[in-house]
Specification:
The complex is a heterodimer of chains A (110) and B (114).
Chain A (H helix, E strand, L loop, with lengths): L3 E3 L2 E5 L4 E7 L6 E7 L5 E8 L4 E4 L2 E6 L4 E6 L8 E8 L5 E3 L3 E6 L1
Parallel strand pairs in A: 2-11
Antiparallel strand pairs in A: 1-3, 3-8, 4-5, 4-9, 6-7, 7-8, 9-10, 9-11
Chain B lengths: L3 E4 L2 E4 L5 E7 L5 E7 L5 E9 L2 E4 L6 E3 L9 E3 L8 E8 L9 E2 L3 E5 L1
Parallel strand pairs in B: 2-11
Antiparallel strand pairs in B: 1-3, 3-8, 4-5, 4-9, 5-6, 7-8, 9-10, 9-11
The chains are: A mainly beta (110), B mainly beta (114).
Amino acid sequence: GEDVEQSLFLSVREGDSSVINCTYTDSSSTYLYWYKQEPGAGLQLLTYIFSNMDMKQDQRLTVLLNKKDKHLSLRIADTQTGDSAIYFCAETNAGNMLTFGGGTRLMVKP
Amino acid sequence: DGGITQSPKYLFRKEGQNVTLSCEQNLNHDAMYWYRQDPGQGLRLIYYSQIVNDFQKGDIAEGYSVSREKKESFPLTVTSAQKNPTAFYLCASSIDGLSNQPQHFGDGTRLSIL
């Protein structure tokens, strides 16, 4: 079955770049997503990338996809304290069912 | 304002009791989903519905039931058969269940056992 793995925790200083990594196993994945979850809240869609793309940039966010290695990353430039949250990657195949990673908790130190 | 509304925000269940979590969307989305989130874990799919009057079991449907009588509403009932119901429940919707349109989430309901 599908499996999505993320590291549990990342700590960065305010103003630095953050890179959150994700690996997945389903080679038929069509879209890959990044969601942000603040404490006690639902998931906010940040960005997503189609599997035939290598990179997508949206303001401070850059998504890199290495389809050969099944590796996805989210880079947040100029990380701010408001970026502190849990970040989930998720992949979907033709059935539009999402498979989520366990989430990476990003802590931004002032 | 278009969006997904879950209620209540917090819910307490007594032993042997069924409780129903509400999810309403005004996005005109065909597909709706229920997920369960346990501490420190990702989301697991309970049930989903791609169209009114139709729904399918997800990965962890045992002890839960749903209905989809209206396009905008997808209530989830946590039955007494669910022995470990304490979790954060998230509802989502997407334009349809087929074309890989992103899922958008509500703010969740936290269910606890009294």
